[in-house]
Amino acid sequence: MAQETITVYAREEPPDRWDAAIFLAGPTPRSPEVPSWRPAALAELRARWRGGGRLVVFDPEDRHGIQDDYTGQVDWEERCLHLADEVLFYVPRDLDTMPAFTTNVEWGMWHDSGRAVFGAPPGAPKNRYLLHYAEKHGVPTATDLPGTVAAALDRIGAGAPRSGGECAVPLALWRTGPFQRWYGAQRAAGNVLLGARVAWRFGDQWGLRVRVRVTAEDRVKDGELVVFRPDTSVVVLYRPGPTLDETTVVLVREFRGPGATADGFVHEPPGGSGPAGTDDPPAVALAELAEETGLELPPGRLRAYGDRQVNAAMSAHRAHVFGAEVTEAELAELRSAEPQGAAAEGERTAVEIATFGEIRRRRLVDWASLGMIAGVIEPGNGAGPG
Questions:
Q1: Is there a contact between 139 and 111 (Cβ–Cβ < 8 Å)?
Q2: How confident is the model at residue 382 (pLDDT cuts 50, 70, 90)?
Q3: Among the four residues 31, 301, 322, 386, which has the most C-beta atoms within 10 Å?
Q4: Taking Cα atoms as reference points, which of 348, 235, 228, 334 lies closest to residue 283?
């Protein structure tokens, strides 16, 4: 698609495809004698857009200067804010002509969305509080309009072609591996994404409400929440026993907020997610094993057992499961291990060792962990009594 920039003014219908979308958030003049900053922003965006495709800019000012539909305006702004890949806040506040009271509310709603940039002239009053939260949440900032536009386009990069319901998925989520794997599976099944809206974001975790045409059933499923987070890598350490129930398994005990167990702790095989962008499950597995138990193993000791979703009714992420048989000496080392974990991140883990029979009878682990353990140690699957 040829490079182009399209402006969608207040209450106008967005197009059905684009590579990137920006919302121009900030104060709007209420008097024709006061010039708006948005025409200059549009000119900057047209001059700087190098994505090679279609850039859509949502401008909440009316094309003809008419402001006579308050509810329609608010609804349009809410819709287009959610459609935007980046919300460009520029706040040349003037307490007499552009006090930006509504902008303050919008900033409070979008500053931690992961898709906001903030700019304001150094002399604009009453922006200190906004700048404080920009710094706190890592929002790119600038002191002039060209710098603010550049910050937004820098994060957008080349964009990504999307159409229909795909346009409702912001680039920050669209580009992640977890989303693309989920969406690839949906398309392979013949399903169609009709719409979506981000419900929440926390770091590298997203909650997305989706509207999907389920082609095989000829119906539309609406409103379900899909959680996207990095995949996990899990290591089941075991020592075979005479029977399956006598096979010894290594667990870690850790406090996790969602845990609702009798002792208040979660009991599970060691594992976790790597840093953002990591796509090397065996390396993540070995790193998490060392971090949570203190045991360092060479890569050749791991055996891969594949990956599956952990909770397919809610989260799209997968657990990559590995197994490793340990020696009696290593079991002894693990039994005497001091508490481990990434203390700087609030993680504290303790090694627990139990037989598979004890794990089942004492209900030590959740169903997902029980399935991972059983999948590794079951007879004929490379572990357990043969």
A1: yes
A2: low
A3: 322
A4: 235
Nearest to 165 by CA among 205, 191, 199, 192: 192
pLDDT of residue 11: 96
- Cα distances (Å, whole numbers) of residue 351 to 209, 270, 333: 38, 9, 10
Q: Which residue has the tokens 């906001």?
A: 116
User: What tokens does 350 get?
Assistant: 């303790």
Q: Would you place residue 193 in the very low, low, confident or very high pLDDT band (cuts 50, 70, 90)?
A: very high
> 288 with 233: CB under 8 angstroms?
yes
Closest CA to 91 of 104, 77, 82: 104
Residue percentage of the chain with pLDDT more than 70: 97
Q: Residue 168 corresponds to which tokens in the numbers above?
A: 């409702």
Confidence category of residue 208, pLDDT binned at 50, 70, 90: very high
Q: What is the mean pLDDT of residues 28-46?
A: 95
- Bridge partners (DSSP) listed for residue 87: 23, 116
381 neighbors 294 (Cβ within 8 angstroms): no
pTM for this prediction: 0.91
Radius of gyration of the chain (CA): 26
Distance CA 355, CA 251 (A): 10
Please give the average per-residue pLDDT across 113-137, as a whole number. Answer: 97
Q: Give the separation between CA 58 and CA 22, rounded to whole angstroms.
A: 6
Q: In the chain, what is the straight-line distance between the N-terminal and C-terminal CA atoms, in Å? A: 60
Contact (Cβ atoms closer than 8 angstroms) between residue 302 and residue 323 = yes
Q: If we measure between CA atoms, which residue out of 162, 242, 232 comes closest to residue 204?
A: 232
pLDDT at residue 13 is higher than 50: yes
Quote the tokens at residue 219: 């119906």
